[in-house]
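Anyone else keep sequences and structure tokens together like this?

Example one:
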Amino acid sequence: MSGPLQGIRVIDLTSVAMGPYATQIMGDMGADVIKIEPKDGDVFRHVAPARHPGMGAPFLNLNRNKRSVVLDLKSPADAERLRGLVRHADVFVSNVRPKSMARLGLDDATLRPLNPRLVYCAAVGFSEKGRYAGRPAFDDIIQAMSGLAAVQAHPDTGHPAYVNTIVADKTAGLTVAYAVAMALYERERSGLGQAIEVPMFETLAAFTLVEHLAGHTFEPPEGPMGYERLLSSARRPYRTQDGFIALLPYTTAQWQRFFRLAGRPEVAEDPRYMEPAQRSRNIHALYGMLADLVRQRTTAQWLALLADADIPHSEVLSMEAVVADPHLRESGLVQPHAHPTEGALRMLGIPTGFSRTPGSIRAPAPALGQHSLDDIAREWAQGEQS
């Protein structure tokens, strides 16, 4: 095993995406992650496509570097077995509602006396401090409640829209991963664990409002909410004569180079567009001009013209093209792996690099109940004695 979390033992009582994404990151970074599942398994096991029942593609992409143990936590005996494992754990992560965890005797207050060094993370939909505590939460609901669906509204119809990825789950999952890492760091100084709450609603609302709080950052407000550049109806991948490109001149020098390349040198000297504060006020007109100019050439012509201009740009890649991208293959993000039951797979690599303690992919996603809790408990106990 390798990675900066080598030797850290994680009990993973999570399902679907938010929690499993966080605990997979911990596993990639060397932690020993024990996934606790009910007899039917994590519901994401059953999401298509799949080669075999219970091993769906989303599950495979969120649960490598873990061991799977099946327990019926409504059974007092199984709940007690899990509490026994907690005595030897460093981290406990759950996305079960806190009231249910308390009924099971698996809440922080119950587990803390068993292991004062435990880092206990509750990944929940809504903070227990507010009136929405305990409400069910899924990605679409959180996108709607956080304002994200509203700012994604179609510029022509005004209809709100979801981002086509589980952005709330993954953003909250990343937050769980870094929060646990910070608590483990603090434990090295204090010798004590602590309880962490990561609520999806608050996490994504904060994520969205960083730039979109805008004029309401001030009291009284100095303007409306919403980062105007992002909300421009002309901001989108720009249509060329035969396709689309992404293009983002950002600094004054980049805008000036673009307009000179595009054959409009007079705009490069226009203070309405080249003075930063004025440019911000005229961003809609500027993006509209950009869109009109891009339509005049083919995608290949624009890529050739922009190649050495140091102006951020790209083709708009399909997902298939992303997987085949030569840079990502060279950096190791897409890797071939052989799964013992699912055969040849493409597996996503670890995007974060460490010079001395790199993470690693040591094991593919486990079959349901592939591992024994008793064996793991003995292994952990013996590890402490040695």
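And example two:
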Amino acid sequence: MRVLHAVTLHSPTHAFGGPVRVALNLSKGLRARGHEAALVALGEGFDDPWPTEVEGVPARLYPARRLLPLGFSGMTSPALLARAGRLVRDADLVHVHLARDLVTLPVALAALRAGKPLVLQTHGMVDPSGKLLAKVLDAVAVRRLLRGAGAVLYLTPHEREALDAVVGGAGLDNTVRLVNGVPAQDERPPLAGPPRILYSARLQARKRPVDFVRAAALVREKVPDAEFVVAGPDEGELAAVAEAVGSLGLDDSVSVPGALTSAQVLTELRRAHVYVLPSVDEPFPMSVLEALAVGVPAVVTHSNGLARDIAGAGAGRAVEPGPEGVAAAVLELLDEEANRDASTAARKLAAESFSMDAVLDTLLDTYARVAG
């Protein structure tokens, strides 16, 4: 089966975050099972010549143009739009990682017009919104796509309710739950040296990187040699992070390396004692799954979509938002025995509940039904 995965943007720093990682993981898994999976997206930040594949997945990347000052929603490519019809016609099934933007919406509409089997996956990016642009796009395209797709994949019951609210009426009858999967990883090596605590996500307000820095100050009061890493592309919070680091006197213990490649993230995870994502209302973060797969205990807030799984399995801690709860959880997990137990539980949870094999089985069953 020839499957085209469409996602908004791919860059060397993975600025678009989890949806790209999910698209790549699924595409690699499909190719390992003998299918022809490929990726189409905007591209940004590459040196010439631009890549024609990403992590072994054939990719068509089109230079991003920013037409409107609306972040990712204001980006598009005239060349991609002109070739969208041809791209979907060459596929047996089109899988769009849908957002309210000028990339995934046109590709999905082209698939619908061409009568191609269409699967949508929204990653929590399509929910009720009072913004004017969202209302216009919903009326013009989003509702039509959600109702017309062969399947709409959702992560959590909350996301399913949000999708029903967007389409209105009786809601959707074409939804399938598909959790994010994570490829198996080698276990992190025995750790040596000072405790190292990692944040690796976009620096944006919802993810609360400043809470991580403030928690670092509290941890340092108990563990003076602890080291902290705040990694990720800036989406408005870098200045606040830098100010917090300076005002709390943490220049010698907190490093802010900027955006990391996938390989660099994996290297950091193998050095980390604890992974922290203090964000609120996070649907299903790939960064946490990657940490669990390596065996790094995770600290998340209760509104994180993985909080119950992590707490229930003993793979880390779920806390109330804020630096105090994060710091207390990190200190618990820096205990050698607690860290060892949580690390073992983390790898077990990733392997048993979020393996790529289980995710691909569900996905291929859905593809077969939609294409059939």
